[in-house]
Amino acid sequence: MTDKLKLKLSSRIRLARNLSQYQFPHRLDQKNARELVHLVEEAFYVSKPLAEGFRTRHLWEERGLDLLFWFEKHLVSSKLIDHADIGAFICNQTEDVSLMINEEDHIRLQTMSSRKGLKELYEEAEQLDTVLEEKLNWAFDNQLGYLTACPTNLGTALRASVMVHLPALTMQDRIGLIAQKLAQMGMTIRGIYGEGSQAEGNIYQISNEVTLGISEEFILKNIEETIDSILVMEAAEQTKLIESRGDETRDGIYRSIGVLSQARLMSSKEALERLSTVRLGIEAGIIHELTTAAVDEMIIRVQTGNLHRQLGLTELMPEKDRDLLRATILRNEMKRRLS
Question: Is residue 196 scored above 60 in pLDDT?
Fold first, then answer.
């Protein structure tokens, strides 16, 4: 029987904030935008723990492949990369807190975890927000709440999201219906890298879209209850799948283990599909030698930016070389974890 808790990969809280004395990032020239970066740094690094535990990276000083690496780890967004000439981010050593500067808004403060719940992550984000507010004046309106570049973020400017694995619901072509119901509830479902991304490896991000006229507490409660109901649905579909097509499902799972353990070439798309199938086997209690955390780690490790980072490369490898390296990493990982 499927353990619904294993279906959850990670949770994230994101707060959008803007400084009252500056125009939104898309209206700022380079001089003022980089000046704003330094203002945020001065407001943030006010204690020894923050100074020792965090580091700023100015994107205009970084290499392109490093940006891809951070994007794959969800530390930066595609929009911040688009603003690389004025963008920066502050990140802690464990890479579960990231403050993007000059993305769509002046600050996008993120707290992320595969273990913590949304409430705990929100409390951590709120503490950092309070630190910044000591020295920075937020753009705020008594009627509209926090003012943001995009009207959809007005109000609390809070986005709470959970990344989930929904292979059985995807196989049953239920994601479209779920998306419709979520939209009616002021929520949305997106791919693995958020807005505009595809749902690779049957991995989805579910988050609130409405931020105006409701409280932070309501948003968190609503998302948590909705996620729980979707995970119950997925667990039930997995049980039905095993009961109705048990031999075929087990065959697919073990074939994927075999391919991951032996293949010499592996595209990113196939790697995600195979790892998703193996993850299904773990969730459904068919595979006991691996953990979902191990699979999630492999999913990150075989992405393009991570492949280059592991070798210290600064230029993009040819596609075949990437596929060779990806297959080698997966073979070694499967051998190590299954031995």
Answer: no
Q: Using pLDDT thresholds of 50, 70 and 90, give the confidence band for residue 45.
A: very high
Mean pLDDT on 47-61: 97
Q: How many domains does the chain have?
A: 1
Distance CA 240, CA 172 (A): 11
Which range marks the domain in which residue 262 is found? 238-338
123 in any annotated domain:
no
Phi/psi of residue 158, each to 5°? Answer: -110, 130
Q: Is residue 158 part of a domain?
A: no
Alpha-helical segments (H) within the chain: 30-44, 48-53, 64-72, 78-82, 118-133, 167-171, 175-184, 216-262, 268-283, 292-301, 304-311, 319-338
Chain-centroid distance of CA 201 in Å reads 14
Kind and range of the H or E run holding 110 = strand 107-113
pLDDT band at residue 16, thresholds of 50, 70 and 90?
Answer: very high
Q: Is the pLDDT assigned to residue 162 strictly greater than 90?
A: yes
106 contacts 22 by C-beta, under 8 angstroms: yes
Q: Are 44 and 132 in contact (CB under 8 A)?
A: yes
In angstroms, rounded to a whole number, what is the distance separating the alpha carbons of residues 330 and 336? 10
CA-based nearest residue to 106, from 50, 158, 51, 40: 40
Instruction: Report residue 230 as tokens.
Output: 């979707």
165 phi, psi to nearest 5 deg: -105, 120
Q: Are strands 145-146 and 140-141 parallel, antiparallel or unpaired?
A: antiparallel
The angle that helices 268-283 and 216-262 make with each other, rounded to 10 degrees, is 110
Confidence of residue 52 (pLDDT cuts 50, 70, 90): very high
pLDDT attached to residue 339: 82
Determine, yes or no, domain membership for 194: no
Position 259 in a domain: yes
For residues 59-75, average pLDDT: 94
Who contacts 164 (Cβ-Cβ below 8 Å, separation ≥6)?
7, 8, 9, 203, 204, 205, 206, 227, 230, 231, 234
Determine contact, residues 290/337, Cβ cutoff 8 Å: yes
Give Cα 128 distance to the centre of its chain: 20
C-alpha–C-alpha distance, residues 339 and 334, integer Å: 8
What's the chain's average pLDDT? 95
